[in-house]
Specification:
Number of strands: 10
Helix content: 40-55%
Largest sheet: 6 strands, mixed
Strand order of the largest sheet: 2-1-5-6-10-9
CATH class of the largest domain: Alpha Beta
CATH topology of the largest domain: Rossmann fold
Mean pLDDT: 87
Organism: Mycolicibacterium rhodesiae (strain NBB3)
Keywords: DNA-binding
Number of helices: 16
InterPro entries: Class_I_gatase-like (IPR029062), DJ-1/PfpI (IPR002818), HTH_AraC (IPR018060), INH-QAR (IPR052158)
Protein name: Transcriptional regulator containing an amidase domain and an AraC-type DNA-binding HTH domain
Pfam families: DJ-1_PfpI, HTH_18
Strand content: 5-15%
C-alpha cells in the first residue's frame, strides 16, 4: 500500500511521526505472520522541498505529482486556537494542498486526516455529506464552517466510504492502526501489543463543556446558568428565559454549536462536575448525585453508562489513570 503524508507548514510533529512509526512497526512485524500483507510504502509529500514543523524541525518532502498513492494522510498542524486554524486553512498559500486533497478524493484515493488535519479535508470538500469526527474541542468551529459534514465528536475514528477522520492529537495512533487493520487485523493487533496501544473508542470522556462553550457567547451563558443551578432539577425553559431567548432558539443554537440538545449539554456539565467531586472529595455517590441535580447514585450510574459507556469507578479514577499500577500502601490511603 502506497501511503503519502501531505505536509503543510507547522505540521504537528508527533502526528507526523506517529503515523510513520505505526506503519514502520507494521512493516517490521510483517514477517511474524504466516501470510503477511504487502509492505506500506511511506512518502512525505509537500509543495515545498523543505517544510518546517511546529517544533521547528526541517522535513524534506517529495513533490505531490511524483507519487500515485493509495492513501493520502493529512496530519494535524500545530494551531492551538480555532481562529488561528481557520485563518490557516483560508491562507491562499495553502490553496494547492487543498486542491490536491480534493483531486485525490475525486480520483478514488482514500483520504484521511486527524485532529486539525480534518479541517483541510473539509475545506477541500472531501467530507461533504459524509460522517466525520475531529478534535472534540474544535467541534463548534468545525460545525460553523462546514455545515454539510455530519460531525460526531464523540467518536475517535470515523470511516465513511473512501474517507477516514480521527479525533484529537493522539488519535493519529488510531488512524494509523486503522490503515494497518484494513490490510490485516492480525497484524494490527500485533502492532497494538508491541506499541502498547489501548482502546479509545470515544472522545466523550475527555471533552470539557467549558471549552466547547468558549467561543460561542450564547453557549457560554447557558453553561454558566446550568452551573449556577446544578443542584436543582433543571428546566430548559427557565434557562432560555434567563438568556432572553425561546426554548426553541436555545435548542437550535446548542445543536448548531456543539451538536447536542440543551439537556444533553447540561448532562455533560453534570458529568464534568460529578467527575471533579468524585476525584477531589470523599463525598458518597449519593451526595455527588444530589450535588449535580440527580435523584440518587443509581441515576448518576445510568447517566455515566449512557453518555460514557462506562462506570462510576472509571469516572472516579479518570482517563489519565488507566493502566497505572498502584502499590498496596498507596491504595490503602486512597479514598473509596
Amino acid at each position: 500500500m502506497r501511503v503519502a503524508l501531505l505536509l503543510t507548514e507547522a505540521v504537528f510533529d508527533s502526528g507526523l511521526s506517529i503515523v510513520c512509526d505505526v506503519l514502520d512497526t507494521a512493516n517490521a512485524l510483517r514477517g511474524e505472520l504466516h501470510r503477511p500483507p504487502p509492505p506500506w510504502e511511506i512518502t512525505l509529500v509537500g509543495f515545498r522541498r523543505h517544510h518546517r514543523t511546529a517544533r521547528g524541525h526541517h522535513v524534506r518532502a517529495e513533490p505531490p505529482a511524483s507519487v500515485n498513492p493509495d492513501v493520502l494522510v493529512v496530519p494535524a498542524v500545530g494551531a492551538k486556537d480555532p481562529t488561528q486554524l481557520i485563518a490557516l486553512v483560508e491562507d491562499p498559500s495553502l490553496r494547492r494542498p487543498t486542491e490536491f486533497i480534493s483531486h485525490a478524493a475525486a480520483s478514488g484515493v482514500v483520504v484521511a486526516g486527524a485532529c486539525t488535519g480534518t479541517f483541510f479535508l473539509a475545506e477541500a470538500g472531501a467530507l461533504n455529506g459524509r460522517q466525520a469526527t475531529t478534535s472534540w474541542w474544535l467541534g463548534p468551529a468545525f460545525r460553523a464552517r462546514y455545515p454539510l459534514v455530519d460531525l460526531d465528536t464523540r467518536a475517535t475514528l470515523v470511516h465513511d466510504a473512501n474517507v477516514a477522520t480521527a479525533g484529537a492529537a493522539f488519535a493519529h495512533i488510531d488512524l494509523a492502526l486503522w490503515l494497518v487493520r484494513c490490510r490485516s487485523p492480525a497484524l494490527a493487533d500485533l502492532v497494538a501489543r508491541y506499541l502498547l496501544i489501548g482502546d479509545r473508542a470515544s472522545q466523550a470522556a475527555f471533552a470539557m463543556p467549558s471549552v466547547l462553550a468558549l467561543h460561542c457567547p450564547e453557549m457560554a451563558a447557558f453553561e454558566r446558568w446550568v452551573r449556577d443551578h446544578l443542584g436543582e432539577s433543571l428546566c430548559i425553559g427557565d434557562a432560555a428565559r434567563a438568556m432572553g431567548v425561546s426554548a426553541r432558539t436555545l435548542q437550535r443554537r446548542t445543536m448548531a454549536a456543539v451538536g447536542l440538545s440543551p439537556l444533553a449539554f447540561a448532562n455533560e456539565i453534570r458529568l464534568d462536575e460529578a467527575s471533579h467531586l468524585l476525584r477531589s472529595t470523599s463525598l458518597s455517590t449519593d451526595a455527588v448525585a444530589a450535588a449535580v441535580g440527580l435523584c440518587n447514585a443509581s441515576s448518576l450510574c445510568q447517566l455515566v453508562r449512557r453518555r460514557r459507556g462506562s462506570t462510576l469507578r472509571v469516572l472516579r479514577d479518570g482517563p489519565a489513570h488507566a493502566g497505572i499500577a498502584v502499590s498496596d500502601d498507596d491504595a490503602a490511603q486512597m479514598p473509596m
